[in-house]
Amino acid sequence: MSANHGENAPDDASFEKLVRSWAEHPDFEGAPAHLETIPARQALFEDLDPPVADALKERLAERGVERLYRHQARAIANVRAGINTVMVSGTASGKSLGYQVPIVEAILDNPRTSAMLLFPTKALAQDQLRSFQDLRIPGLVAATYDGDTAPDDRTWVRRRANVVMTNPDMLHVGILPNHAAWADYFLRLRYVVVDELHVLRGIFGSHVAHILRRLRRIAAHYGSHPTFVFASATIGNPGELAQRLSGLPVEVISRDDSPSGEKTVALWNPPMGDNDRRRSALSESTDLFVDLVRRDKHTIVFTRSRKATELIYRWTADRLDPDRAERIAPYRGGYLASDRRRVEAALFSGDLIGVTATNALELGIDVGGLDAAIITTFPGTIASFWQQAGRAGRSKDRSLAVLVGGEDALDQYFMTHPAELFTRPSEAAVVNPDNPTILDAHTACAAYELPLDLSDRDFLGSDVEEAATRLVEAGDLKLRNGRLFWAHRRRPAPGVSIRSSGGHQYQILDVTSGELLGTLEEVRVFSQAHPGAVYLHQGDSYLVDTLDTELHEVHVTPAEVDWYTQPHEEKLLEVLDVTEYRSIGSIRHSVGRVLVESRVVAYRRKKIGSGDILSTEPLDLPPVRLETDAVWFTIPDEVVDAADVAANELPGSLHAAEHAAIGMLPLFAICDRWDLGGLSTPMHPATANATIFIHEAYQGGAGISPVAFATGERHLRSTLEAIDSCPCETGCPSCIQSPKCGNYNEPLSKQGAVRLLRAMLSGGR
Q: Over the stretch 582-605, which tens digit does the pLDDT of each residue have?
């Protein structure tokens, strides 16, 4: 059972009163855009038939679990019966018992039974390791196997553990290529658990889909066909996502029968200042955090970056008395594991009153009950918003969640359309296992693990034959005795980054220390790390000295500067194939394959704060070619005429609509604007009309475009509402300006975009 610190929390009415008092107090500059009360929910229980094994029942009773919630009981019954199951429910709803119980029962029945549990982070794996170990079940040997596992310990895990916690990266590069060393474990493999299903999306999810299919193939080679169990927060398509990832039929249990207390949700909007810019969301969150900690309310502040986590912590500590300042802490990736465990334990015990955190604490690590959650800018998806809001009031106590709006279009859309946040279904999570670059990479990995033959279609899919043909032509596979073998001595898996879509990875190197700071994909390196660019890493600034296209290295030097850089990019787009099209009013909406060629030709140095242009510097860099998926809107002349958009206003109107549409697309598919690119033009050769393109920013595509096509009209209407409801005069970051525009956000016409979108949606009338 979780420790709870909410006994002294005010009731729901006083939380609402507290928020209103902030709005009236001169020390707080923002104001509540909306207040919503989510009523308490009573628990529903269900008995298992047969009941939980006696030895396990005693251990669960020690945790305070006397009865199972109905969704837990139904999940356990499914998994017992060998049904591949997806469990979908909220934070702290006890999803883990849905797989822990059948795994433990199987081991009690036969200690040689093995299970594999996949988690997206090491911290989650450690949390579940403690949970299994605390059960103290005879014959159950649980262990983690990841990059932190010492070589001697790895041998022990392979030979002794029957419950192994790992992550997709280690499974891909460490376990599957060495399956012979795991032969006995795979022989006994009965369950595979995939936790935090909702984060397995986009390029990462597309890679994981192939890793899971390779896992099924290896298990079958040793004679086992494990049952798959997926655990997920609420998303729009959990069953479809699990099927796409595993290639297996699944049954979804999408109910939450756990209890929850009343929750007050406040949408808090920073005030608009000069030059159509809002006060910083970080400053607003700091004000609220300080007040809650002074009231001894156990609070978590979520941010979207490591730097923001540190800044809010430091600003808050400076304003608190010394005793309270010692009882708050930051929590983010990049810290030593021991430091993160210390913060988790202190939160759980109540020694800490508050913590600032990245989304590392959004996932299911148990840190006890909290009174309040402050969410500093919309976290990108409705699913993540509710995950973070659910960190407050994780038991039956009343709680507070505050979303502090930022300048981004989605933030301000929810501030002005709050019902969308509370009533809109969660977004669909998208993957694209058919991406040829990813498919070829994992087909090579599979061939290294075991030679390929026709039966592998059952695991790897029918497209594996096309991939194999391409690999044979490239000299990577060789045919012998009717089977395809890997043709090289090197292992393919280490060369396949499962966090990217392929292409060269550039290493970012600090030349003063020799430290590797990180990596960038080729499609991003010229715009983010060109010579002369200011490169940010964990809040520190570096100047790019050189970009080596042969060694694929970027050399940087630490630098404290009061300016930032903005690239100027020229882009060409060729339509290669139109997959499907339909009419929306008098415009045509299409989806298909495109070739994007972009070249960074210059950059601006701009003053931090004022945005004053200090200089414009030319660049001579090679073009980057990207074959990917896209959607586009073709706008006939009669629609442009009906919108009363003059020829000289049309480029800015199209450009503004393009930016806003990219900003609003994450309402419908789980992605963010950095996963997307765009191009708008008064006349494109493929359409012979004004056209707005939105393309994916990954080689081969990540599965976003089909969802964008399916939601085209709703997407356009949301785009119009976002621009039209923004209070700015001529356009701002909350509506038509983009932080990643390669044309310096020029030209842009807010009013022209509004008229154009209205005409597009009204059929040109």
A: 999 889 999 999 999 999 999 999
The angle at the Cα of 704, spanning 199 to 572, to the nearest 5 degrees, equals 130
Total Cβ atoms within 10 A of residue 561: 12
Please state, as a whole number, how many other Cβ atoms lie within 10 Å of the Cβ of residue 470.
14
- Cβ contact 404:282 at 8 Å: no
Q: At what angle do helices 650-664 and 712-724 cross, to 10 degrees?
A: 110
Mean pLDDT of the chain: 92
Residues whose CB is less than 8 angstroms from the CB of residue 462 and which lie 6 or more positions away in sequence, other chains included:
none
Closest CA to 393 of 532, 260, 489: 260
CATH 3.40.50.300 fits 54-253, yes or no: yes
CA distance linking residue 39 with residue 263, whole number of Å = 7
Strands 483-486 and 477-480: antiparallel
- Residue-wise pLDDT tens digits, 223-254: 999 999 999 988 889 999 999 999 999 999 99
pLDDT at 12 over 50: no
What pLDDT digit, counting tens, does each position of 708-736 carry? 999 999 999 999 999 999 999 899 999 99
**Cα separations (Å) of 564 from 553, 559, 561?**
21, 11, 8
Cβ 261 vs Cβ 401: under 8 Å: no
* Pairing, β 516-521 against β 505-510: antiparallel
CA–CA separation, 661 vs 583, rounded Å? 18
User: CATH fold of 28-41+260-423, please?
Assistant: Rossmann fold (3.40.50)
pLDDT in tens, 51-79: 998 889 999 999 889 999 999 999 999 99
Helix/strand/coil for 727: coil
The pLDDT of residue 394 is 66
Q: Which of 488, 450, 445, 443 lies closest to 468, judged by CA?
A: 443
Q: For residues 298 and 350, is the Cβ–Cβ distance under 8 A?
A: yes
Report which DSSP code applies to 136. -
Distance CA 350, CA 345 (A): 9
pLDDT of residue 717: 96
Q: Which tokens in the block code for residue 243?
A: 């099927």
Report the alpha-carbon distance of residue 303 to residue 355 in Å, rounded. Answer: 11
- What is the C-alpha to C-alpha distance for residues 565 and 613, in angstroms, rounded to an integer? 10
pTM of the complete model: 0.89
* pLDDT surpassing 60 at residue 387: yes
Tally Cβ neighbours within 10 Å of residue 485: 14
Q: What is the C-alpha separation between 528 and 536, in angstroms, rounded?
A: 9
Q: Please check whether the two domains, 28-41+260-423 and 54-253, share a CATH topology.
A: yes
Of the chain, the percentage scoring pLDDT greater than 70 comes to: 95
Measured between alpha carbons, how far is 670 from 201 in angstroms, rounded to an integer? 8
Amino acid at 454: L
CA distances from 271 to 28, 253, 276 (A): 10, 43, 10
Please report, as a single letter, which amino acid is at residue 141.
Answer: V
Spatial distance between the Cα atoms of 687 and 588, rounded to a whole number of angstroms: 10
Q: Are 554 and 588 in contact (CB under 8 A)?
A: no
What are the pLDDT digits (tens) for 421-465? 999 888 889 999 999 999 999 999 999 999 999 889 999 988 999
Sheet strand arrangement including 163-166: 142-144, 163-166, 114-118, 189-194, 227-232, 85-88, 251-253
Cα separation, 419 vs 592, in Å, equals 33
Instruction: Say whether the peptide bond before residue 50 is cis (omega within 30 degrees of 0).
Output: yes
Domain limits of the chain?
Answer: 28-41+260-423, 54-253, 436-495, 505-561, 568-761
DSSP state for residue 574 in the 8-state scheme:
E
pLDDT of residue 347: 82
Helix (H) or strand (E) holding 614, with range, is: strand 613-618
Q: Which of 566, 544, 540, 562 is nearest to 553 (CA)?
A: 544
